[in-house]
Amino acid sequence: MKPYATVGEMHKALTGVLLIKPTSVSVLDESRLKALTDDLIASVAFGGDDVRKYAAWALRAAAFDLGAYPASIQSLYMARGRGEWSGVTVPAINARFGYPQLRAGLRAAADLNVGAVIWEIARSEQGYTQTRPLEYAAGVYAAAIREGWRGPLFIQGDHYQVNAKRFATEPEAELQDIEALIKESIEAGFYNIDIDSSTIVDLSQPTVDAQQHPNYEAAVRLAACVRAAQPPGVVISLGGEIGEVGGRNSTVEELTAYVDGFARLATAAKVSPGPSKISVQTGSSHGGVVLPDGSIAKVSLDFDVLGEMSKVGRERYGMAGAVQHGASTLPEDHFNRFPAIETAEIHLATGYQNMLYESPNFPAALKGEIDRYVIEKWGGAAAAGRTDAQVIYQERKRAIGPFKQQLWAMEESTAAKLRAEWGAVFSTHFRLLNVVNTRDLVEKTVPRVDTPVSAR
C-alpha cells in the first residue's frame, strides 16, 4: 500500500485499467483495478492534494461503472413508515479505521446478501481519525471495488453535532461550520446526514416544546442547507435527535415536541421533507461506561420506551422510527430485540474498535506503542481521576489518525486475520438484526439516481 507520487504516475498505472472519456469512465480490467485499489486509497489518505483528489475521483468513477454507487436510504425508510416492510433494524457502522474495516464489512454484507446497511462517520470521528468526508467515501468505494460489492452504498454523516459550548458564544460560526461540513460531505457522496442539535436542548425551560425549541430550530436551519446542496434527483435522508446519548432517557412527549416543532418551522422555511428517523436516548452511552479495571459496566436499555417511540414515529409521522446509538458494546443477546420492537436503525462503533485493539492477532509492538502514546497524551495530570486502563479504553480512539499509516500497512497475513475477525462479528450482527437477504428489498425500493463522475 503506497501512495502515488504524482497524478501522472497514477494515470500511467491506470492505463489499460480505466477508459477515461469526456463524460464517463469505463473499467477495462477489473482484476487489475482490484490490484491497484490499495495504492489508490493510500493516495487519497496520504498523498498530496492533487493526487488525493484524482485518486478519489478514480475510485468513485470506477465503482459507479461497476455498479456500486452512493445512495440515499430515504425511499426505503419512507416505505417502512407506510408499513410496506418491517422486522428489520438497519445497522449504521462507524468504520473508524476506514478502508481495512470497510473491506471486512462489505465482504460480510456481500456474502449474506445484505442491502440494508449504512457506512458512517461522525463529525468528531473525522477529527480524531484524521479522515475528511472525501477520504471516508473513497474508502467505501475502494472497499466495494475490492470486495466485489454491487448496488447502493448508503454513506452517512453521523452526529453532525452542534458543539453546545461554542454555540453559547458563537452560534452563527458554529452553524456555519456544520453547513460547510454538510456541503463537503454531500459532494463526496454522503447522501444520508444525521443532524444532532440535541446538545442545545434547554431543560431549564418550563415546557417540553420550549426545551426542544433550540434543537428543532437549529435542525431546520441545517436541514435547509442539506436540501439546497443535495444533487438533482437525490432526496437525502435526514436524521434528527431529541436526547444526547449518555444523558437522561428520552420520552414520547419530547419526540412529538421535536417533530411537530420541526414541521412548523420547516413549513414556514419551505424545507421539505423532514427527518426520516429520530435518534433517542434509552440508557446507552457512546463506547459504554468503563470501570477502573478497564471492563465495561452492564447497561440496562429501556426497550419498551424505544419500541413505543419507534411506533409513534411510524404511525403518527410516517417515519422509519427511532434510532438507537451506543449499541456496539451491548451484550450480543440484546441485538435480536431491536428488530423485534421495530427499531429503525442502530449505530455501532466502539465495539468494533475494541475488537481490533484487543485481538490476539493485533501486533503486540504496535499495541504497546499506541498505549504508550495514549498514556503520554491523556494520562498523568490529564487523566482527571481515571486509571490507566480507563484512559487507554476511552482515549485510544484518538490514536487512529496518528497511527493510520501503521494500522493500514500491516503484513497481509495479519491484516487478513483481523478482517476475518471483524467479518465474523459483522455477520453475527447482520443475522441478529435481520438484514440478511435484504438486497432485493433495497434495490427494488431505492432508485439509482446518481450520475457517473465525469472525466477530469
Structural write-up:
With 456 residues, the protein is α/β, with parallel strands linked by helices. It has three domains: 7-66, no CATH class; 69-355 and 418-445, Aldolase class I (TIM Barrel, Alpha-Beta Barrel), CATH 3.20.20.70; 364-409, no CATH class. It contains 19 helices and eleven strands. It has helices spanning 7-13, 30-46, 49-66, 74-81, 99-111, 123-128, 133-147, 164-169, 171-188, 208-229, 252-269, 303-317, 337-340, 350-358, 364-378, 388-395, 404-408, 412-432, 439-445; strands spanning 18-20, 25-27, 68-70, 90-94, 118-122, 151-161, 192-196, 237-241, 277-280, 322-324, 345-348. The strands form two sheets. Strands 4-5-6-7-8-9-10-11 form an eight-stranded parallel beta barrel, surrounded by seven helices. A two-stranded antiparallel sheet has the order 1-2. Helix 5 (99-111) links the parallel strand 4 (90-94) and strand 5 (118-122). Helix 7 (133-147) packs parallel to helix 9 and helix 11 (252-269) runs parallel beside helix 12. The model has no long low-confidence stretch (mean pLDDT 92).
Indicate how many domains the architecture comprises.
3
Overall structural class, as computed from helix and strand content, comes to alpha/beta
Distance between the termini: 24 Å
Q: Tell me the series of helices and strands, N- to C-terminal.
A: HEEHHEHEHEHHEHHEHEHEHEHEHHHHHH
